[in-house]
């Protein structure tokens, strides 16, 4: 079913990169500065997993623990519903007015089928922020995060599987958008502040271009 909102009215940025690269961290800074609505596909799936009465709870738990990609219909529906809900809140501030809004979609699309389907049926992204660092750095960050995250997949067995999924399944998505000139690659090995400075530069440019065209 088509989304209720008009895709012309939304600005979408996909936020991609390996597990632990720093996607969520950078998104929260962008939310504070630019008023984006931040939708993390992983957070939406974890919330659905916990929701009483959900028929997907067990399926989501297994996919996440194994580092696999949950069937796209589930994730796309959750994202679409969350976008609809945000647009219906009638938020105010830069980029928001009746039926209009700006979104960071974090950790999605992670597989080509999701990318094609979302682009065709929901909306297209103006930009892909791609956070790039080494597996060594990501492993260290995730092990540290695992001390307090309570996540089923922040353990070494799941992390190794997530790295394989990232290389085999998500990198082709990033390469696909790179071929379409949509990817801004940012080294996320450095400090949170330095990564954010580079993030700001690209995001400010996209927002200025959007303003100029509207
Ligand atoms: N640039 C950075 N330098 C050091 N630690 C970072 C950096 N960015 C994020 N972190 C930490 O690494 C962990 C993973 O970051 P997170 O934003 O959750 O990544 P992702 O959403 O890509 O998995 C978190 O504990 C976060 O505090
Ligand atoms: O579109 C998506 C996004 C996430 N996930 C699952 O959710 C997990 C955690 O994703 P999240 O983005 O929260 O992890 P992060 O990269 O931030 O550590 C992934 O490993 C997948 O199993 C999924 O199936 N589809
Ligand atoms: Mg995250």
UniProtKB/TrEMBL annotation:
Alphabetical UniProt keywords: ATP-binding, Cytoplasm, Kinase, Nucleotide-binding, Nucleus, Pyrimidine biosynthesis, Transferase
One GO BP annotation of this record: pyrimidine nucleotide biosynthetic process
EC number: 2.7.4.14
Residues that bind ATP: 20-25, 145, 190
One matching Pfam family: ADK
Cofactor: Mg(2+)
Annotated stretches, region: NMPbind: 40-70
Location(s) in or outside the cell: Cytoplasm; Nucleus
Region (LID): 144-154
Major place of residence: cytoplasm
Protein residues bound to a ribonucleoside 5'-phosphate: 46, 68-70, 107-110, 114, 151, 162
Gene Ontology molecular function: ATP binding; UMP kinase activity
Highest taxon listed in the record's lineage: Eukaryota
UniProt enzyme class: transferase
Annotated cofactor note: Binds 1 Mg(2+) ion per monomer.
Listed Gene3D superfamilies: P-loop containing nucleotide triphosphate hydrolases (3.40.50.300)
Reactions mediated catalytically: UMP + ATP = UDP + ADP
GO cellular component: cytoplasm; nucleus
PROSITE patterns in alphabetical order: ADENYLATE_KINASE
NCBIfam families hit by this protein: UMP_CMP_kin_fam (TIGR01359)
Subunit (UniProt): Monomer.
Similarity field: Belongs to the adenylate kinase family. UMP-CMP kinase subfamily.
HAMAP family: Adenylate_kinase_Adk, Adenylate_kinase_UMP_CMP_kin
Domain characteristics, as noted in the entry: Consists of three domains, a large central CORE domain and two small peripheral domains, NMPbind and LID, which undergo movements during catalysis. The LID domain closes over the site of phosphoryl transfer upon ATP binding. Assembling and dissambling the active center during each catalytic cycle provides an effective means to prevent ATP hydrolysis.
Protein name per the record: Uridylate kinase
